[in-house]
Specification:
The chain is an alpha/beta fold. Helices cover 38% and strands 19% of the residues. It has a seven-stranded parallel β-sheet, sandwiched between helices. Strands 7-11 form a two-stranded parallel ribbon. Helix 5 crosses helix 7. The structure holds NADP nicotinamide-adenine-dinucleotide phosphate. Keywords: Photosynthesis, Photosystem II.
């Protein structure tokens, strides 16, 4: 089996992906801005430092690194470093990047376009919000007397389920844009807030919060959901049970 480079291999999703790739017998190399124990290469996609050494000789790149700003430039640097070789580029994007007018999502959509037009063999996997992200929204409010819940639905997915799918892509080879992956349940913000409070054993009134603007109207219209892909996997309650 060939070597796999995982950018973002120290992140929420990346840590689990690296574990599963190693279990499946792959040689895994991690690109990180900080030196890591084991098979890692120090590098920075923002400056390009260390990136050519990181991609050297790998057959597959799982590009999971992300930052609030600069994802498109980082992706472009990574693609440039792969030339003239053509490793399989696997990119994790987000459901609705082309429908929800957030700057962070626009950058992800631009990464998709850069990869599609790069000439590299590629697989693009969009995923819904991770359980950990939804939990953080509620956890951030833990000291408030009330719990605010957005008036839209989410379909949170577990990083272990996304990681399993990404490992399949490594083994299967390039598939271009593949069906989205979503969590097992589509739930209202209100019901997810209640689940968080139940797991954290906190008593708070949940107040629905309808935010104005185009971003929230696209969330309310369900642009962040993959209803045809609610095919099982770890539920939000199961995820929370591991944390509290
Ligand atoms: N969170 C969600 O709900 C969600 C949903 C769908 C899709 N996704 C996508 O899934 C992917 C993984 O998300 P995540 O939540 O697991 O990410 P995360 O935990 O925020 O991790 C970010 C990773 O990016 C790396 N990174 C950041 N800036 C870098 C730079 N300049 N150079 C090199 N590495 C850099 C970090 O590595 P070091 O700090 O070690 O350098 C870290 O490993 C992302 O593409 C994200 O958009 C996320």
């Amino acid at each position: 089996m060939g070597d796999v480079l995982v950018t973002g291999g120290t992140g929420n999703l990346g840590r689990v992906v690296c574990e599963k790739l190693r279990e499946a017998g792959h040689e895994v190399r991690v690109l990180s801005r900080r030196p890591q124990p084991g098979h890692s290469v120090r590098g920075d996609l923002r400056t390009g430092e260390g990136v050519p050494a990181a991609v050297e000789g790998v057959d597959t790149i799982l590009h999971l690194a992300t930052a609030p700003r600069g994802d498109a430039e980082a992706c472009s640097r990574l693609i440039a470093a792969t030339q003239p070789r053509g490793p399989h580029m696997i990119f994790t994007s987000i459901v609705g990047v082309d429908r929800i007018p957030l700057a962070y999502y626009a950058a992800k959509a631009e990464c998709e376009r850069l990869i599609e037009t790069s000439g590299l063999p590629y697989t693009i996997q969009r995923a819904t919000q991770f359980h950990s992200l939804i939990m953080r929204v509620f956890h951030a409010q833990r000291r408030l007397p009330l719990m605010f819940a957005p008036t839209c639905d989410f379909q949170p997915v577990d990083v272990h389920d996304v990681a399993d799918r990404l490992v399949q892509h490594v083994d299967a080879g390039p598939r271009e844009r593949v069906p989205d992956i979503g969590g097992p349940e589509i739930r209202s913000g209100h019901s997810l807030a209640k689940a968080y409070l139940g797991a954290a054993r906190r008593r708070r009134r949940v107040v629905n919060l309808a935010l104005p603007g185009r971003v929230f109207s696209s969330f309310r219209a369900g642009a962040n959901l993959a209803p045809d892909q609610a095919n099982g996997g770890v539920t939000f309650e199961e995820f929370l049970a591991e944390r509290f």
